[in-house]
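Hi Prof. W.,

I finally got the BCDO1 dioxygenase prediction working! I wasn't sure whether to trim anything, so I left the full sequence exactly as given:
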Amino acid sequence: MDTLYGRNKEEHPEPIKAEVQGQLPGWLQGILLRNGPGMHTIGDTKYNHWFDGLALLHSFTFKNGEVYYRSKYLRSDTYNCNVEANRIVVSEFGTMAYPDPCKNIFAKAFSYLSHTIPEFTDNCLINIMKVGEDFYATGETNFIRKINPQTLETLEKVDYNKYVAVNVATSHPHYDSAGNVLNMGTSIADKGKTKYLLFKIPASVPEHEKKKSCFKHMEVVCSVPSRSLLHPSYYHSFGITENYIIFIEQPFRLDIVKMATAYIRGVSWASCLAFSKDDKTWFHFIDRKTKKEVATKFYTDAMVFFHHVNAYEEDGHIIFDVIAYTDNSLYDMFYLKNLGKDFKERVRLTCIPACKRFVVPLQYDKDAVVDSNLVTLPSTATAVKEKDGNIYCQPEILCEGIELPRINYDYNGKKYKYAYVTEVQWSPIPTKIAKFNTQTKEMLHWGEDDCWPSEPVFVPRPDAKEEDDGVVLTCVVKTDPMDPPFLLVLDAKTFTELGRAVVNVEMHLDLHGIFIPQQAMKTETE
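And this is what came out:
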């Protein structure tokens, strides 16, 4: 297992032709671009946590039935500083780095002051985001890095904080019908307030400002005040429907005072994150037209979630699906000390993730009796009116043991049937991928012995009329490093294999990514 996780992976910046087995569809033309940690040891220093590793981008380019692989480390400021010093000198969430020990005590006091709201890393290792015609590697800090999707070259660094007051932001933005980016970030103790901001990055700029970047036109759409000034909620994603933004304020929170003193106490920022199992999880619904929050307060029991699956509106209700846990054990699983050889036997989650469907009645009878269930759709999910006017929601469990959900993005924010997911059970490492029908609860699976598939990405067939008309792509790493990894292409309807592209390299396990169709790519000369 440590070969999959702990070992540094080599980069392959020049294209390597994959051996294609089976038959790939002729219409599949473009680039699957993915991101994840690839280097965990620098000189004599090691990161503590798998999510801290230096970002390694990799891509599969589909061209006329042939497939080419390449990989390249993101040349972030973090990467360059660490490699130049031959040790970890930039802190990540789970690993606090310290300046050279021979620096004098004044320097230490000075750098302590600058760590209060820290200068975060630009090691953007989680996902890829499209802004206009450009692509960016993203993490969860205020920094993103522009990249060339064809060569994987690292380009300029963008600081969200220059345009909107956010210290952290999600790596799971949404895109509206015009291609504008909608994302959320937290503004920590700015002018005495901590709030969650929904911001928009336009897909294009006015004709007379063509030289200006889209970021100069970034705007805050609205803000939701944090329930606590010094304990903002951690969140990895948010939901969207045709008329609403869904923001979940979970009792999994950062302690800002602890973060401010973490450096001097010699602990990581991750140690400043705590789950309060007896607290409530609050749901916020923001009207996309009025930019105001719905006044009614909706909540559920304490939970920890990372990924929204999808959300939609039906008969005055908002229906949203999330993958949720009853505790925060997931993050701890990925400390590298836990990812040794006997990892599979030794490390077990204390709860299995569940796909929970919440059905929230935005339009309900205001004269309804206290303790009555306000959900009028056929569902086992409930929303009960309480004495104080708050509404207590309990979900329908759609299924258990799935993570890293993807959908046909044309159905984002709309009523949908299918989610493409990894299967995890008691170990957080996927051993299979599946197609899950949220309406019938049926599941189709793909798995082979000693295979570790990544997040499945759905690619629609051009001019597809049906939700599952297309293919599903997943990168598969083998347990034995001598066994070459491959990119698997499944027919999304039947979930059967169409073909695979085998690459003779040691591939890393990644996190998230996107498929860029050929027509969405700038030509090299542009």
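The chain has one domain: 12-520. Does that look reasonable to you?

Thanks,
D.
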